Amino acid sequence: METTEIEVRTGGHEVVRDLTGDCEEFLSSVGAADGLLNVWVPHATAGIAVIETGAGSDDDLLAALHDLLPADDRWRHKHGSKGHGRDHVLPALVPPSTTVPVVGGRLALGTWQSICLVDTNVDNHTRKVRLSYLS
């Protein structure tokens, strides 16, 4: 198994950040052939999604999360910015990991699929993401 950890700067706003290029670069650096890539975010307030980006789907995902998990005072988890408790519920809806097949050294994603970090926590501006390739 080959593994690395990358740092992703998310800034002070909610974000869907495309990690596909980072994943492809990692696979190239380890000389990947056929196997599996696991993408893991070791944080209690972020997740990994496989979605289309660039055509509005990333913004639609954030809007849907706002509808499901409003940033208001209803949450019992109270520390941090207003509504931060919702960020701790996010990984139940957007899991902290995904595994993608690798075929011939390339991600076996569909035409419009991208691997994305989903982060609604405006209090944490930097995230770590673990990439692990198993052949």
TrEMBL record:
SUPFAM superfamilies for the chain: YjbQ-like (SSF111038)
Gene3D superfamilies: YjbQ-like
InterPro entries xrefs: UPF0047_YjbQ-like, YjbQ-like_sf
Sequence similarity: Belongs to the UPF0047 family.
Protein name: Secondary thiamine-phosphate synthase enzyme
